[in-house]
Amino acid sequence: MISIDAGQKNKLMNDLRLVIDDAQEMLRMTADQVGDGAVGVRARIEARLAEATRDLKHLQEAAVTQAKAAGHATDEFVQQHPWKSIGVAAGVGLLAGLLIARR
Asked: The pTM is what?
């Protein structure tokens, strides 16, 4: 399975939300057009939009759940190992300071 990071998930959710909004707008604009072909296409599009909306909701819920789990894991680690956490934070701060000072 391909893993995607939080930024990619956010972009995917935003893109999917835009596609859904555009498709719903298109359906509203073509609501007055009738015909056997148009009715069938509209029904398929509406079904796929409903499915895409459900998928987007599940993706958002999964992202929130993963973020909360990561936060809880970090909180537990910091509480169990406060000096290690301080050391890591100091090291990251020192490294960031060195990188910024080089510019």
From this structure: 0.52
